[in-house]
Amino acid sequence: MKTKIMTLALCALAATxxxxxxxxxxxxxxxxxxxxDGAAHWFLELGDAATLSLGGYNYDVKFxxxxxxxxxxxxxxxxxxxxFGMRLQLQGGKLYxxxxxxxxxxxxxxxADVLYGSAQYDFMLDVINYFAPYKxxxxxxxIPFLGVGLGYKHEVEAINVKDKSHxxxxxxxxxxQLKLRLARFVDFNLEGKITASDLRxxxxxx
Length: 206
Prior knowledge:
By secondary structure, this protein is mainly beta. 6% of the residues lie in helices and 59% in strands. The chain has three helices and ten strands. Strands 1-2-4-5-6-7-9-10 form an eight-stranded antiparallel beta barrel.
């Protein structure tokens, strides 16, 4: 039986560069459309995420030992209206997953390092722009999102033993992004999300 696992990205810190400026409007976005089209309103995000596995024995391990901090990500997207946008995000790195230790007298759990990658397509809603008049220079945005994609398990290593049995799995994610404007073409994002997939991590098969 397949078991789904959950992964929480505690924070994704990204510098976002708008490739072209957007036009101001005086109405909430559900009554507003961009004047220009074509190459306008694209954005690029670069960042890093802290990931946390929520499956299996991981709940019994200290929180700090479960967090993996090096998980770079890259996203490109476009705002179709002042409030509705889409992005393709790529992320990869190492996820920590814990299994029971069969040896007696040692730690009760062993850490398995999982090399992974993922690609997801997210649908984004700028709540502030949806309800308030659109301003190109607005400082703060709240952006919930939902997405689907594909996850990839490349390798698992525990106690110097490597398992190279690869696995692909569909995934779904949901999260919230807080966007702070730093300059005309640069934003700072703080983002949290939960991702569900079926990569069959060691804790799910232990």
